[in-house]
Structures are given as structure tokens and as C-alpha cells.
Amino acid sequence: MRLFTAIALPDFARSELAAIQPSHPDIRLTPESQIHMTLRYIGETDKVRTRRIIHALTHVTFRPFDIELMGTGCFPNPSDPAILWAGVRYHPVLGELYDSMQEELNSVGVPMESRTFHPHVTLGRIRIGKKDRSGPDSPPLETVLDNFFNGEPSRFHVTFRMDRFRLYQSRLHSGGAIHHCLQEYRAS
Predict the structure, then answer these.
(1) Rg of the chain on CA atoms, in Å
(2) Distance between CA atoms of 158 and 10, rounded to whole angstroms?
(3) Which residue has better confidence, 175 or 123?
(4) How many Cβ atoms are within 10 Å of 73's Cβ, its own excluded?
(5) How many CA atoms lie within 13 A of 93 on its CB side?
(6) pLDDT digits (tens, 9 = 90+) for 8-37
(7) Measuring CA to CA, which of 23, 34, 162, 184 is 20 to 30 A from 130?
(8) What is the pLDDT of residues 30-58, one digit of tens each?
(9) What's the gap between Cα 183 and its chain centre?
């Protein structure tokens, strides 16, 4: 099973994020129903380790807090964008949640993440090859991306209360990944 932990966003936040997703044939958008904030990608696991992970995550402690989604950006950088995202304002409780999760996952054999935690919400991915397939009905990709980074979407801001996270299983399909919640964990 391919696993990850994430914060499920409330309907109103997903709807507002979907409204700022850039539309272009070269951008594969995250479907509104699948928009979430990944906390920790775990990867492929067998059933035995999955049961251990489900149990270990019950020991993750955190308190409810407000999450602010704000602004837009991309990975790795604006001159070579691959992943388009909405930003997440860093909150100390979010860092504590992530660190506690890292420790509990490590206790059941999931290696610590070596990359720095950069909270974000993935909104779309630039199609491989980046061949601009703009047509008469769509502006050039460069124009769409400039608007996403510097126009109205860049001023995006929404806040919601976070009091739970989930463990998801991700199944890859031709149209993208489908995520299924295996377990939900609430704040203490």
C-alpha cells in the first residue's frame, strides 16, 4: 500500500482553492475532491507495517489550531515550475505535529524524512515535457503561470480550524491518484 498522512481540508477551503487553480492544457489539476495538505509521505508498505503505522499514529499528540492558507507558488522554482501550490503559513503547533509524527513513524521503521518540512497544498502539476499546447482558446502557459504567481490567486487567503489528521492510502490510476482514508486521528 502507498501511504501518506494529511490534513483534510473543509469543503469551503477546497472550493476556494479550486477557484484559483490555473486552467491550461499543460497543467494537470488536482481534482477539488482530492485537495488536501500532505504532512508526511510514507510510501509503499505491506499490511503488517500498515497496522503498526495505524497504531503508532495514535500516539501523535497535538492541540487544535488555525491553519492559514495563503499565496501561491511552485516547486522547484518559478523559472522551471513542476508543482503548483497554495502556501501554508507556518504555525508552531503544525511543526510540533509533524515532529511527533516523524518520531512515531520512525518507531515502527519508517525512516525520518530528510527534506525540510514545507507545508503546502498541491493544486496542479505541469505536464512532463512542458510543450506549450496553448490554442486559440487558451493563453500561453507562461501568461497563465504569471497570473497564478503574481495575479489574484497570489493574494489567496483562507483560515480554518484544524483538529485532526488522516492516514491515507493512495492508489494510482490513469487519471491520477485516488486517496482513501484509512484512519483519522483527533487532537487531544
Answers:
(1) 17
(2) 11
(3) 123
(4) 17
(5) 15
(6) 999 999 999 999 999 999 999 999 999 999
(7) 34
(8) 999 999 999 999 999 999 999 999 999 99
(9) 17
Cell of 46: 505491506
Rounded to whole angstroms, the Cα distance separating 15 from 30 reads 12
Contacts of 148 (CB under 8 A, 6+ apart): 20, 22, 72, 84, 154
Largest CA distance in the chain: 55
In the block, residue with C-alpha cell 502507498: 2
Cell output for 165: 489528521
Cell of 55: 497504531
Segments making up each domain of the chain, as ranges: 2-186
119 and 90 in contact (C-beta within 8 Å)? Answer: yes
Asked if residue 111 lies in contact with residue 15, where contact means CB atoms within 8 angstroms, the answer is no
